[in-house]
Queue: 2 jobs
Job 1
Amino acid sequence: MATFSDKPVSEQVEELSRGVEAMYTREELAQRLTRAAAEGRQLRVKLGLDPTAPDIHLGHTVVLQKMRQFQDLGHKAVLIIGDYTARVGDPSGANKTRPILSPEQIAANAQTYIDQAGKILDLSPEKLEVRSNSEWLEKLTFMEVLQMAARKTVAQMIQRDSFKQRLAQNQDVFLHEFLYPIMQGYDSVMIHADVELGGSDQTFNNLVGRDLQKAYNQPPQIVVIMPILVGLDGEQKMSKSKGNYIGVTESPKEMFGKVMSIPDGLMTNYFTLLTDLPPAEIAALCDAATTHPRQAKEILGKRIVAQFHSQADADEAAAEFARVFSQHAVPADMPDVKATAETMNIVDLVLKAGFADSKNAARRLVEQNAVSLDEKKITDPKTCIPLHAGQVLRVGKLKFGRIVL
Amino acid sequence: MATFSDKPVSEQVEELSRGVEAMYTREELAQRLTRAAAEGRQLRVKLGLDPTAPDIHLGHTVVLQKMRQFQDLGHKAVLIIGDYTARVGDPSGANKTRPILSPEQIAANAQTYIDQAGKILDLSPEKLEVRSNSEWLEKLTFMEVLQMAARKTVAQMIQRDSFKQRLAQNQDVFLHEFLYPIMQGYDSVMIHADVELGGSDQTFNNLVGRDLQKAYNQPPQIVVIMPILVGLDGEQKMSKSKGNYIGVTESPKEMFGKVMSIPDGLMTNYFTLLTDLPPAEIAALCDAATTHPRQAKEILGKRIVAQFHSQADADEAAAEFARVFSQHAVPADMPDVKATAETMNIVDLVLKAGFADSKNAARRLVEQNAVSLDEKKITDPKTCIPLHAGQVLRVGKLKFGRIVL
C-alpha cells in the first residue's frame, strides 16, 4: 500500500504548481487530491515517452522532476511507451521524422529511457507502472477511431502549434499525424489517467485526452504543462541537435563544466526546474547581492551531478573544476594526443587531438587565441612545432590533451 | 457466363466516353477492356451509393446510364452500400448532414435505391453485385487505417473542393470526414474494382481509390467522371432541395410536363446524358433549323417517360399534354377540390386546392393572371365567388381541380 503525504492539500497543490507553465485546472487538482486521499486511492499520473529518442537530457528531466513530486506525495507514475505509433513509420517515405522501429528496438529504447529516468523517478512497483499503448490500440476498431475523430474539427487540428508552423512553411503534414493526438487521448482513457504531464508542445494532445475521457464518461484528467528548458546558450530550447544540452549520462566533469558555463540569467530557471531547493533559498542564491554567481552555479552544478552520479562525484568534479579554472592548473587526468610526426603544424595537431571538427574550425580556434602548448599561446595557424612526449595541449578552458609520440 | 460485346475495343471506348467529363485514363480503359476480353473476364465497375438519400432523380441517373453501358458491353456493376459510414453519424451533434441510420433503415433505403435504379440498370445476377462496405471496414485494424492515412497529406485533403469551400466559409469539417475518402478508396481495393464511376464531386475520392490500389499491389482502377446534370431551371445543379428536378418515381404526366418546360439550350445535354440516342441524331434534333424545339422536347419527354414507366404511358402523357396545352382543353382526369363554403375568396380557394404553399403565394398567382375558374381569368385577390360543383379551377398551365361542394 502506498503511503500518502499528510501535508494539507493546499500545500500539496502549491508544491505541485512549482515551475508549472499551465495547469488545467488547479481547482480540479485540489479536488482530485482531496478525493483520492479520502478514498485512500493513488492518483494515476500519466507521461508518454517517445521510444524513437530514448537518450534524455536535462530538458526532458523537467517533467520527470514533476512526476517525482507526485510520487513523493504517494501517487503512481504511469509511463506510456508509444510503441504502436513507432510501428507506423512513414509509408510514403517522405516524412523522416518517424523511423519504423522493430519491437526489439522499441523495448531496448524504452529500457534505456527508464534506466536514465530512474535517476529521478522512484522505480518501485507501487510508484511506477509502465504500459505500451499497442496493448489497447491494437484492439481499437475503425468505428471507435471514427467516433473519436468526429469530436475534433480540421480547423482545431490545424491550430495546433506544430502543425500550424509546418503548414505555414508548406511542409507536408501527413493525415495519419492528425490521428496521433487522438491515440494519445485514448491512452488516457484506457489507463484512467487522473493527471497527465507534458511539455508545452504537448498541450494540445493532453487536452484531447481530457475531451475523450469526458466522452467515455470518465472524470477528465488534470493537465500539467511544464515549460521548455532553455539550453546552455541561454536562448534556444535545450536539444541534442543544437548541441546546447547536458545529457543525463554525461560524466560528472562534463556536467559540472557545462553548468558552470551557463549565463547567470538562467540560474533561477534551472534551480526551479531541475532541483528541489525551496523557492526562498533559490531567490537568495540567485541574488548577486547575497551570492556570487560563480558560487551559486557551483551549488547548482553539484546538485545536478549528485542527482545523476553521486555526492562524491559532485564534490570531485567541483574540486577539479576549481583547480583547473580558478588556479589555472592543468587537470590531473587527461587524454593522450598521439602526434603523427615529430614536428607538426598547430592546426593539424588540434584537429588530430579531436578538439575541432574541421581544419577550418581548428584554424579559427588558433586565430582566436584559444590554443596553447604548455600554457604558451600559439596564435599563428602556420606555426609548426617540434613535439615532445608529455607536453600539454590546451584548447579553450575545458579541453586538455597530453602529447604522446 | 457473361456475353461480351464483339465491337472493336476502340469503338467501345468511344461509346463509354460519351458525355464523360473526365477519365483517368482513356488509354488504361482501352488496355483493361482488351485484357478482360482476352481473359474472358468481366470488368468490375464500382459505384458507391449513399444510403442516407435513397430517392433518386434524373441527376443521379447520369452515372447509372454510364453503368448500363458497361453492363451492355458484358461487364458487372458492383454497387457499394456505404452502410459503415452511415453508422458513424455525428457524435459531436454539430454536423447535421449525416444522420445515424439503423441497419434496418439502411437496408430499406438501399432497396429503395436499387428498385429505382433498376429502371436503368440490368439487375440480373451476372451483371450486378451489391455489397455493403461494413463487410470489410468492420475488420479494418487501426494500423491499416494509419498506414493508408499516411499516404495523404493534410494539404491534399484541404484542396478537395467540398472541404475547401466549407473551410473557406468557416464551416466545421470534422476530422472523421477526412477519413471518408480513404474508406471509399479501400472499398475499391476490397472489391478489386477495375473502373469506378462518379459525379465530378467524387473525383478526389475516386482518385484516392487508384492510389490505395497501387499501395495494395492492384492495377489502379480507371476513374470515369460524369458531369453534374443541370436542373429544369437551366442554371443550377439538379437537386431535390432546389425543386428543379424530375424524380424517377414521378408520374408520366409530371415527368413529361417537366421535360416540356426545360429551356431549349438544355436539350443537347439531356439527350446526351439521359438517352442512348446516337450523337448524330441528337445533333439533328437539337438544330432548330431541322426540328422545332417543341417537337424535340416531345421526343425527349417520351424517351424519358418510356424508360421509367412504359411506351404506352409515354404516348398517353404526350397526347394528354398536346390536348391540354396545344388545344387549350382541360384534362380528362383531375383531382377534386372540396369547397369549404358556398362562396369563397379566390386566394383561399387556390390554397385549399393545394396549388400554392401559402396564402401569399396564392395571392401572387392570382395577381400574375395564373388563376382561372371555368377558363375565366380571376386577377383580383379580393374576389369572392359563388361556387358550383363541377367548375374547373386552373392554376398555371399544369394544375387543374374540379370543385366539389
Job 2
Amino acid sequence: MPNNHAYCIIMAGGIGSRFWPISRAGLPKQFLDFSIQGRSFLRRTYDRMKAVIPEENILVVTLERYREQVVSQLPELPEENLLLEPYNRNTAPCIAFATYAILQRDPAAVTVVTPSDHAIARHEVFNRTLLDAIAYAEGSDALITLGVVPTRPDSNFGYIQMAGHPEPGSPVKVKTFTEKPDAELARVFIETKEFLWNSGIFVWRAEAIRRALEKYAPEITRLWDGWRDVLGSENEKPFLERIYTDMPRISIDYAVMEKTDNAWVYPAEFRWADIGNWESLYEYLAYHDEQGNALNRTSRRLLKDCSDNIVYSTRDDKLLALRGMEDFIVIDTDDVLMICPRDEEKLKDFLSQLAMPEYEEYR
Amino acid sequence: MPNNHAYCIIMAGGIGSRFWPISRAGLPKQFLDFSIQGRSFLRRTYDRMKAVIPEENILVVTLERYREQVVSQLPELPEENLLLEPYNRNTAPCIAFATYAILQRDPAAVTVVTPSDHAIARHEVFNRTLLDAIAYAEGSDALITLGVVPTRPDSNFGYIQMAGHPEPGSPVKVKTFTEKPDAELARVFIETKEFLWNSGIFVWRAEAIRRALEKYAPEITRLWDGWRDVLGSENEKPFLERIYTDMPRISIDYAVMEKTDNAWVYPAEFRWADIGNWESLYEYLAYHDEQGNALNRTSRRLLKDCSDNIVYSTRDDKLLALRGMEDFIVIDTDDVLMICPRDEEKLKDFLSQLAMPEYEEYR
C-alpha cells in the first residue's frame, strides 16, 4: 500500500563540468547516459524513486536553464512538480525550496531527498532501506541519511562514522561526517568498520528539516519569510529571483547535518557510485575488453595494440579505429575530440587549459 | 592570344582509397581539399588549366558515379565537356575516349592531359612549360610528358631518364621510364642528374596519340570502331557500357609511352607533388607547428606535449584537444575516428583490417 505522505525531492540542478567534453554547461551529467541502456541518470533516478514513492509526490528541482532537458526526459512529470531555481546555490537552499513546496501541500509529508546523477544497483536492497527509513522518519524528528557499506577505501567520497552498532532495519546515530579523506585515512576508516559512504540521500519529515534549517541555517530560512503566500502565486518567480540573489551557497551536510545532534544513518548494502571522476567512469562504462579498455559500446570499433584506455563517443554510428594507444582517454563528441593520458594530474591541468575563454564556445 | 586548337583532358575518375577515412569510395581525393583554401584538387586543376587553355576546350573525364561531384565543383563546365566512363579502366582507355571526343570537334587539336589530384605550385613556370610544349607538339608527332626536376630521391614517384641534355624551352628525347624505384636506386637516379619525376601530364596532337594508340594498344582502339558515328548520338551510352566491359585496364605509360620511340620530356622546375601517401600529406598540410605536428588548420586546437603528429579533421568547427601524442596520425571525420602510429607498415596493416567487410558501411 503506497504511503501517500511519502514525497521525493530529486535534485537535478548540478552544473558539474568534470566530464567535459562529454558533459557541457548546457548538458550536465544528470542528463547524460554513460551506459548503453539509453536512460539518463535523471531518468533512472526517477524510475528508481517511483518504485517507492507515489509518482504525483515526486518533485524535481532544477535550474531554469535546464527546464527543457527535464521536461524532455521526464515528460510525465506534472508541471507543478517541477521547481525551478534561478541559480545554483548548492543543496541546502535547494532542499529548503522544495521542503516549503511540499509543506504547502502536505504538512505531514515525509521526504526522500536524492541526487540525480548517481548510479545505484541492487534495487531490492535500496527500496527496502528506503521504506524502512521512511517508516522510521515518519514517527520521529530524525534527520536520516542512507550510508553505503564501503567496499574499498575510496578517497573521493564523504564518510559517515556510526556512533554504535547497527541493528537490521534500524538507523544508527551519526558520530562524525568526514568529506573526502586522504588515502591513508580512508584505509583506516575501512578497517574500523565504523564508517559508511555518504550517499547524499536523505529521509526526514518535511516539518523536521524545516525546523532544523530554521535553527541551523537562519541565513537561508530568513530569506523565505512569507513563503506560504508567495509559493504558487504570480509573485513566486520575482520572489525567487530576489531571494536567490542573496542566497548563501551551502550544502545540506554543512548547513544542518554536521551541526544537528539528531543525525541518523541507515547502513545499507546496495551498490552505489558517485561517478565523480574519470577513474570511476572507467569502472562504470558498459564494456571492458580483455586488454583493459573501457568503452561505452561494443560495436563499430577496432582497437588494436590498445590497452587500458577509456574510449567514449557520443555518436553511436561512428567507427572508432584506434591502434597503439595505452592508458589514454579518448573522448569524441560532435564538436570536440579530446585525447589525453589517463593521469589525474595531466587531465586536470589539460582541462583547466581547455576551460580558458578562447574555448568558451565549447563549454 | 589563346590557341583555339589547344584542348585539355582532366582525368577525374580515380577511385583511390589510400586516404581513407578522409577519402571514401564516393569521394576520392580529386574532390577533396586537404588545405585550408577551400578548393578541391579538381577545382585547382581546372583553374590552373584555364590560365592556358580556352575554357570551352577543357574536358573532364570521370566515372558516372562521380558526375554530381564534378558538376557541383565545376558548375561552369558545359555538359558536353563532361565525359562519363562507366567503369575505371586506368588512363589509356580514358585518354582514348577523350581523344576521340576532341577529334570529333577539331581534327587539328593539341591536347594537354592532366591528372586531377596532384598539387602544383609556381604557376608561372608551369604555364610557360605548358605553352612551350603545346607549341612544340603542334608542329610534330611528339608524345610529350612534363618532367619535374627532382628535389629529393623519392621512391614513391615514377622516373623519366633523359636521352640528352635539355635546352631551355625544348623537349628532350626519353631514354627510359622507371616506376617507383627502391630508395637506393632513387638516390642513384638523383645523382646522375639524368632523371626527372614523371608528372603524369602529357601534351600531344590528338591525331598523334590516336595513331599511337592504334599502333601500340589496338586492344583498346579496336573496341572503338565506328566511334565517329556513335559519339554524341543516342547510342553513345550503351556503346560505352558495352565496350568498357571488355576494355583492358592499362595505363597510358605502359600502353604507349614505354613502347613508342617518339616520347619526349620537358624538364621543368615547377613544384609538384603527387600526394599519394600519408607522408606526402604530412608535407602538404597547410599548418606545421614548432613541435613538428602537421594539421589541416590553424585554429580550434590545443596540442600539448604533442610532436610529429598528423592531425586532420573534416569538421571545421571541431575542437581538437590532444595531449601526449607522438608520431601518430589522428583523422577525425563525421563517421570515423582513426588513430594510428605514423608508421607505414602499421598503417597499411591497420587499413587493410579496416577494409574488411564488417566495416563496409564506412568505405
